Amino acid sequence: MTEPRTVLITGAGTGIGAACARLYAEEGARLVLVGRRREPLEQVARDTGGLVLVGDAACPATWDGFIQEVRKQHGGLDVLLACAGGHGLGSATHTSPATWADALRSNLDSAFYSARACLPLLQESAGNIVLIGSIASLAAGPEVCGYTTAKHALLGLNRSLARDYGPHGVRVNAVCPGWVQTPMADAEMQPLMDAYGETLQQAYDRVCADVPLRRAARADEIARVCRFLASREASIITGATVVADGGSSIVDVPTLAFTRLESTHAP
Known about the structure:
Layout: E1 6-10, H1 15-26, E2 30-35, H2 38-48, E3 51-54, H3 60-74, E4 79-82, H4 97-125, E5 128-132, H5 145-165, E6 171-177, E7 180-181, H6 183-188, H7 190-196, H8 200-207, E8 217-218, H9 219-229, E9 241-244, H10 256-264
Parallel strand pairs: 1-2, 1-4, 2-3, 4-5, 5-6, 6-9, 7-8
Helix pairs in contact: 1-2, 1-9, 3-4, 4-5
């Protein structure tokens, strides 16, 4: 019988991180759930049986104790899913030093320090790292300077880690979702709901109107992409960026006017 894998997930209390935990729990993985808020982590732990470690993934000082606990409880580590992240709102001239620092810390530092701490264990197991990026890793939305910059940098981290640690048996890949129905994205829908008097679903429909699949992803769909990249089926894939956005990043923006023209003149 194959030994269950040990999977450490940052940002495990909500959204994609929580979905990853529940998916891996179905296959009997031993889970380590990392996050800053105890209550949502403990809720996920009740569902999955995971080990809860409360702390900031972006703080290097927290990781010594975390890694000791992982080794003590499970003996090693097979997969790191770096799902922790945050906002970074505002254009450059409307981004304060504190907002800029927080955007880099929550979206980039959290991934870097998680990976750096886990790499010794992952080299022992020839394990995997999956970093959660965004379509903001590939293109710029309006007035999200800090978030866009941090998510772009995350792909550089992905490639650097894959290049340096591939010879040690560690694979590293990134997933770039588009809109995903999570508590964080729900909050981002609020200005549209207020402006247009729309429901949450109507707001999602509006932001996905030009997405080829015409919908946002579910968190469990992104979790399945992450699981694939960390599986034996993806054994030759490293340093890759897998875009899971319903096709939004393939749309030729300057031609959207023609699509709208066709819709306006449709019988």
